[in-house]
Amino acid sequence: MAGHGTEEHPHGADRLCAAGDRVYSRAVRRGRVLRRDADAVPCLLELALLHPDPDDMDWLVPTAPQEVMTRLLRGVYDEVTDSQRRMGSAVAAFEWYAGLGRHLQAVSVSAEGTAAIRVLDGLSRIQAAMDEATEACTQEVLTVQPGGIRRESELTEGLHRAVALRGRGVRMRDLYTHVARHGQGLLNYLELMGDAVEARSLDEVIDRLILFDRTVAFIPANADRTMALELRHPALVEYLLTVFERLWRLAIPLTAPLPETGIEGISHREQSIAALLAEGHQDAVIAERLGISVRTCRAHIARLSETLGAASRTQLGVRIAQVGLDRPPGGGSAAPAAVSLPDQGSPSVR
């Protein structure tokens, strides 16, 4: 039986198969389900979503949804904690190697004698290297700009480089978060640049990236961006280019509206927040990933709770899953044209 479940139902409690979903939901609504009705879904027993009724072994009783959610969130928390531990070790090692690199003229040197990886320490060195790359650029610049609404100072900082590139007919493509669409400064910048710049947006993007002519890339080397890496190693640059192109294909042009969620009263941003909540992320993490403030994030969560009729975070998680908001916007199959909100009196979500 265990082997059959592993082969036919390769999933966890966070992504039940359709048959498992039906049987478990029925068990929750009715309080129990006949054992023979669960023969086709051994995954429910293996995942401890159903267990024998001690009063009658012909019946199976469900584990409470709240207990299942707690178990899932505990697993996510353990994974995040472990990842943070590994990330901390990697950052410490990186800082150590970067410290050694400052004593060398270059970390490595290509056949032409140009540094394949250079650590740029300080804003003045970063600006100088960016200006040098801009002057040498003749074809294309690709950028990823994380965060939310772009500050005027950020836009002004690189404006002289953008104008110079436009004057030489260089093509520019920029990726932003959806939140950046609401910044008037960005809209003014794009109007100024005209056809020289094509911009698209996503719910989330990677950290800042600038690629010149597919030969040199700049990425941050610390959290406050006072250090950067200048990358000229062909394999590294090609990898970053591939990442950019895949994000670009998923992104939505700034000239096009964001898709509707298909659920009345829930915006595209709230759908993104709901998906991240379903993954177990805290408010501060969600806010950072979407480029909004924690206060704004919590206001959206409050509206989600009100719209879905949830009185607690646990209940909100159940309602999010019921209406299919536990998947990122655009992920998986297309959303239906209209989705009914769950019956707030349903015993399965009390």
TrEMBL record:
Domain HTH luxR-type: 259-324
Cross-referenced PROSITE patterns: HTH_LUXR_2
Gene3D superfamilies in alphabetical order: Winged helix-like DNA-binding domain superfamily/Winged helix DNA-binding domain
Region Disordered, annotated ranges: 327-350
TM helices/strands, residue ranges: none
Annotated PANTHER family: HTH-TYPE TRANSCRIPTIONAL REGULATOR TRMBL2
The protein, known as: LuxR C-terminal-related transcriptional regulator
